[in-house]
């Protein structure tokens, strides 16, 4: 995907809460690649997992799809017959651009883009549900119910892929991972000002939990296996399996 360079926090400013608006959508591919360690690897591997777990006549959900990277990766790898990919985002700026990208890409597996809150979507007959760095932006009190709905909508043998920024259990470990992440951003060309203003803007809306908290929630919802398949610094991806 073509993308303009992210310079949103390059000048001193009165920092307000981060929003997935037009300004962010315009630079999103550059922003996420320079901010999330392993983002491209994660997206491609999710595509591969989709290829492996998609079953004939089933649905694949991409919740919080942004510009559709996960949906497009899934479409590239899925070979099962008669699957549908459903991509949902409640940001109009994201969903509109996502629909344009999807239209430009001739996928064998159809991708339907919906602009709505993911909580309004019925998850049914799913072989795969993905939340790639989305749950972290949802009110913590709502998370148990969302995960339960996903579990209930998955067919046996289905998987839920959850990527999140994590908080480490110990303060010392957490500080170390945050430092390593900031160094990753510096090496990708972000200045100290950009790093600190972005942090200030996002800290009220991105509520990170520990791996253990995610594991407990997934287990409580009924998932039989919870596999941490990727981690770099404080960014991780989990696959939860429903047998
Ligand atoms: C970090 S981005 C996700 C990145 C994307 N999954 C990818 O792989 O490129 C988080 C997205 O979740 C969306 N989002 C946040 N809360 C949502 C909700 N309640 N319903 C639907 N989308 C939501 C945001 O608009 C944003 O586009």
UniProtKB/TrEMBL annotation:
It comes from the Bacteria. GO terms for molecular function: carboxyl- or carbamoyltransferase activity; methyltransferase activity; S-adenosyl-L-methionine binding. Residues 60-158 form the Methyltransferase domain. GO terms for biological process: methylation; tRNA wobble uridine modification. Pfam families: Methyltransf_25 (PF13649). The keyword Translocase does not apply. S-adenosyl-L-methionine binds at residues 39, 64-66, 89-90, 117-118, 132, 199. Signal peptide: none annotated. The keyword Transferase applies. InterPro entries: CmoA (IPR005271), Methyltransf_25 (IPR041698), SAM-dependent_MTases_sf (IPR029063). Keywords: Methyltransferase, S-adenosyl-L-methionine, Transferase. It catalyses: prephenate + S-adenosyl-L-methionine = carboxy-S-adenosyl-L-methionine + 3-phenylpyruvate + H2O. Its EC number is 2.1.3.-. Catalyzes the conversion of S-adenosyl-L-methionine (SAM) to carboxy-S-adenosyl-L-methionine (Cx-SAM). HAMAP family: Cx_SAM_synthase. Belongs to the class I-like SAM-binding methyltransferase superfamily. Cx-SAM synthase family. Homodimer. This is Carboxy-S-adenosyl-L-methionine synthase. It comes from Paraglaciecola mesophila KMM 241.
């Amino acid at each position: 995907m073509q993308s303009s360079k992210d310079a949103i926090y390059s000048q001193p400013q009165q920092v307000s809460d981060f929003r997935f608006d037009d300004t962010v959508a315009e630079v999103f591919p550059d922003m996420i690649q320079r901010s999330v360690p392993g983002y491209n690897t994660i997206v491609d591997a999710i595509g591969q997992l989709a290829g492996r777990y998609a079953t004939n006549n089933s649905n694949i959900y991409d919740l919080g799809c942004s510009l559709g990277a996960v949906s497009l990766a899934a479409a590239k790898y899925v070979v099962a017959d008669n699957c549908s990919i459903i991509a949902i985002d409640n940001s109009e700026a994201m969903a509109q651009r996502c629909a344009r990208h999807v239209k430009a890409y001739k996928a064998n597996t159809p991708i339907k883009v919906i602009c709505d809150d993911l909580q309004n979507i019925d998850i049914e007959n799913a072989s795969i549900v993905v939340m790639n760095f989305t749950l972290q932006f949802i009110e913590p009190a709502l998370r148990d119910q969302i995960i339960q709905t996903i579990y209930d909508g998955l067919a046996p043998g289905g998987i839920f892929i959850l990527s999140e920024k994590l908080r480490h259990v110990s303060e010392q470990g957490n500080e170390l991972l945050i430092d390593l992440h900031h160094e990753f951003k510096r090496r990708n060309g972000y200045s100290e000002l950009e790093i600190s203003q972005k942090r200030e803007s996002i800290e009220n809306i991105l509520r990170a939990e520990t791996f253990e908290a995610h594991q407990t929630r997934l287990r409580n919802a009924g998932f039989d296996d919870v596999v941490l398949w990727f981690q770099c610094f404080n960014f991780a991806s989990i696959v939860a399996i429903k047998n």
